[in-house]
Amino acid sequence: MIKKEIIVEKDKKIVSILQDFGFSFADVNKMLRGKDVKINGKPIKTNETVVAGQKVTFFYTQDMLEKKFEIVEEGEDYYIIYKYAGIESAGEKGVESVLKGAIAVHRLDRNTEGLMVFAKNEKTANLIKKAFKQHKIHKIYVAEVIGKFEVNKIFKAYLTKDSENSSVKIFDKEAKNSVEIETKIETLKVGEETSLLQVELISGKTHQIRAHLAHLGHPIIGDGKYGKNENNKKFHENKQKLACFLLKFDYLGVEKLNFREFEKKPKWFVC
Question: Is 250 a catalytic residue?
């Protein structure tokens, strides 16, 4: 067994803390049942809240860690990777810290999977960041949502940040401190209870896809923040069915990436 000790920086549920490290929900519960998780040296068996400053000790085997990402292509100046749900894009717990020489130039939410590009040096990082600002890199997503949703249009709305709750709110009309957003949505498949959508951000903001779809009455399956727990339990999902499955590049000034595209679909993409 491998032993790990951490000091928690802010109040958080123990399940969320362990999932941040890449453990599945099932394995976290297995660790709790086996008394392999301790708070300040005391074994726990339930999803308790850990208070900032407390020490968490846990024991695990290497095979319990979920696959975090895979390299799709590696070039002299870049990586194209597919990030799985359950790991941050950047930071000491993210892909950036694991992938040798990687510089994060954009983000995907921790529980969103999909294709990403990482730079290997500052020059390339600056070129890619500039390309994102100039809309020369196109990220196309697929999402499975609750309900029948047949559509092919660009939806406009207004978004405000709720920093206290690490979330955003969507409004149909301009609100205080809001920014205008545009989300392009196309229906790929309509089932009995869900719909499969292709989504592209015309203006990309934090949590935009998740919050906007929920605002439209079609939350993403497995989304614990903007969806409904009863729906997630019904479909047995604790990770949101949202993935960036297609990356398209215009001219970036990065050799071997100019005018290319990469595609990788999540396992649940059945159309």
Answer: no
